[in-house]
Amino acid sequence: MKKNHRISDQNISERSGAALVEFAICVPVVFVLFFASFDICRFSMITHAAEQAAFEGARRGSIPGATAAEAKQAAQDELDKLSLKSAIITVTPTTIYNSTEKVTVNVRLSLEANSWVPTKVLTGGYIDRTSTLTREYVTSD
């Protein structure tokens, strides 16, 4: 003979209350971790983009006949591909002559201005990346 095990309505309501409490405790922690992971991934992407922009700017500035404005624009073009805002790009030297040996481009990006998450885990910080390249020379024989 089989026994029917019936769950009473009282047992179900007690378990629902426990599930609600567990949910209320776990959800804030899960959301904080979820949104923080978005900002950490964005941080990594911004860091790589700043590094690439600095390199591309220095590469453009190292070509014979290039100007500092062209180097700065090349760096800005790289940042525009990812819609990064509030960049400060500096090219050293400010005027590139044929005798200039090295070109340095520095890219500074605000983390706060480029964060995706409203809670802004990455507030108040900056990413600075610099690239220095030796200029190319064309010699005439």
How many beta strands in the DSSP annotation?
3
Q: pLDDT below 50 for ≥5 consecutive residues: which ranges?
A: none
Percentage beta strand: 15-25%
Judging from the principal axes of the Cα atoms, what is the shape? rod-shaped
Largest sheet: 3 strands, antiparallel
Strand order of the largest sheet: 1-2-3
Measured between the Cα atoms of the first and last residue, the distance is 107 Å
Query: Please, how many domains?
Result: 1
Radius of gyration: 27 Å
Q: How would you state the average pLDDT, rounded?
A: 84
Q: Output the helix-strand order.
A: HHEEE
Question: Class by helix and strand content?
Answer: alpha+beta
Multimerization state? single chain
Number of helix segments?
2
Share of helical residues: 40-55%
Protein name: TadE-like protein
Keywords: Membrane, Transmembrane, Transmembrane helix
Domain TadE-like: 17-59
Pfam families: TadE
Keywords for this structure?
membrane; transmembrane; single chain; TadE-like_dom; 141 residues; 2 helices; alpha+beta; three-stranded antiparallel β-sheet; transmembrane helix
